[in-house]
Specification:
Elements (H helix, E strand, L loop, with lengths): L5 H25 L5 E10 L6 H5 L9 E3 H12 L4 E11 L2 E10 L3 E9 L4 E12 L4 E10 L1 E10 L7 E18 L2 E21 L2 E16 L15 E21 L2 E16 L6 E15 L3 E12 L9 E3 L13 E3 L1 E16 L2 E15 L5 H6 L2 E14 L6 E9 L4 E9 L4
Parallel strand pairs: 1-4
Antiparallel strand pairs: 1-2, 3-4, 5-6, 6-7, 7-8, 8-9, 9-10, 10-11, 11-12, 12-13, 13-14, 14-15, 15-18, 16-17, 18-19, 19-20, 20-21, 21-22
């Protein structure tokens, strides 16, 4: 099957939109006053939790420094981009002592219970826990959560992006993940109870705000147990009814976020990429590599519209195993396709969404959504050339709704329905919390 050309044409069009957007943004900044002034006083209003010392690291404007109006506008946007502010405005006041700058901030509630539900045609799950993305008022994230998604799981994570006020950040995670996994090999599939203990730590250096380079180390202890009452008389299946695997992971990653936020709307782009080296004592290949790059683009359309795009590209070198790292799933990349319906050693996915605001009152917004999810998976031992010429593809499109409580952090109810475009078949209803991407 030949790959359809429209995803690549759409990528070119989106890149043109990005270029035009940045040209328009620069033209808007140039219309501001170019003169400079000395900052005599700097204050914040509306802060109930966030520490002033933490916010100052994001500002170009300092007391005693000569700044321009352009820099003041940029600093207000830097504060607006922080996830724990619902709104930020600024005031410039000329006094006898000099210029007084005031940033008026409206904080979100960031320490919240986690109540999340996922519902599709053949499965359901939920999560309960608590999280805070602004612990101690210093942008520290702490999360503890229990999951039920076929089976019971939990995870604890901690992230401090600026240790001791420095530009060095630390992320740690401990998790016990249990699931019922369909694994595929050639023309057969099996259901396994998968239990994974995970311990991971990442260190990063902030090159700029929202721009970091880092390394990570992790340990996985995995157990795969074949679901009872399943016929195992298949010599082509490369693993037994029970499999125990231990893995050590080393990661190098880079992330940059150049999205600007205004209320519920976003403009700009972000890119996250990593390369991972994995040592495994249970797979035929004792060492393999995994690479993944995720590109995001947001474009505000008129006053009430937002176009968003996500392009994911991934490759892995472990081929002779059913435990492949890339998967099609309604909650990961293709809405409506089902529960982990296929696995592969490579992935190219293009997700497009358009949100239109229907209601915006006080703390509540309601948006309609249309989307298109296109993806292709690389089969085990398939060459890159053969992958391009004979790709396994999926394309689902549909619509949905978003209900957003804007004064609370990450409280968005998402409801989507996906339709199978290539096979002209009905898909599934997918319900979750938070934006899809």
């Amino acid at each position: 099957m030949q790959l359809p050309k429209w995803p690549y044409i759409m990528l070119v069009c989106c890149w043109w939109i990005i270029t035009l957007k940045h040209a328009q943004a620069n033209n808007g900044i140039d219309t501001l006053k170019q003169g400079t002034f000395i900052v005599a006083a700097l204050q914040f209003t509306g802060l109930k939790k966030t520490k002033v010392a933490y916010l100052q690291r994001f500002l170009q404007c300092k007391i005693g420094r000569s700044v321009s109006e352009i820099q003041v506008v940029q600093d207000a946007q830097h504060l607006r981009n922080l996830p724990f502010f619902a709104a930020v405005s600024h005031e410039i006041e000329h006094t006898e002592q000099g210029v007084k700058l005031t940033f008026n901030c409206l904080e979100k509630w960031t320490m919240l219970p986690i109540v999340n539900g996922n519902v599709s045609q053949n499965r359901w799950g939920f999560s309960l826990g608590v999280s805070d993305i602004n612990l101690l008022g210093k942008g520290i994230a702490l999360k503890g959560i229990y999951h039920y998604y076929d089976r019971h799981s939990f995870e604890l994570s901690f992230f401090n992006p600026y240790l001791g006020g420095s530009w060095l950040g630390l992320y740690t995670e401990v998790a016990k993940l249990s699931s019922l996994e369909p694994l595929y090999w050639q023309n057969t599939s099996r259901l396994y109870h998968v239990d994974t203990w995970k311990m991971a730590s990442e260190w990063q250096i902030a090159l700029q705000p929202r721009h970091a380079l880092g390394i990570g180390l992790g340990y996985l202890n995995e157990k795969y147990t074949l679901q009872p009452n399943v016929n195992v008389n298949d010599t082509a299946w490369p693993i037994r009814t029970f499999e125990h695997d231990q893995k050590v992971l080393a990661k190098l990653f880079h992330k940059i976020d150049r999205r600007d936020y205004e209320h519920i709307y976003g403009n700009g782009w972000a890119n996250n990429s990593f390369v991972e080296m994995v040592w495994s004592d249970g797979e035929p290949q004792s060492v393999f590599f995994k690479f993944c790059n995720e590109f995001l683009y947001y474009k505000r359309i008129a006053k009430k519209g937002n176009l968003t795009l996500r392009n994911t590209i991934g490759l892995a070198t472990n081929t002779w195993t059913p435990f492949l790292p890339f998967v099609w799933d309604s909650y990961q990349n293709v809405r409506g396709i089902g529960n982990r319906v296929a696995r592969g050693t490579g992935e190219v996915t293009l997700n497009l969404e358009y949100h239109q605001t229907l209601l915006d009152v006080n703390w509540l917004t309601l948006q309609s959504t249309i989307f298109s999810d296109w993806s292709t998976l690389r089969a085990p031992e398939q060459s890159l050339q053969n992958w391009v010429q004979h790709a396994q593809t999926a394309w689902y499109a549909g619509g949905g709704m978003r209900i957003n409580l804007t004064r609370f952090s990450k409280t968005i109810l998402r409801v989507d329905y996906g339709y199978n475009v290539l096979e002209q078949k009905t898909g599934e209803l997918v319900i979750g919390i938070g934006h899809y991407f």
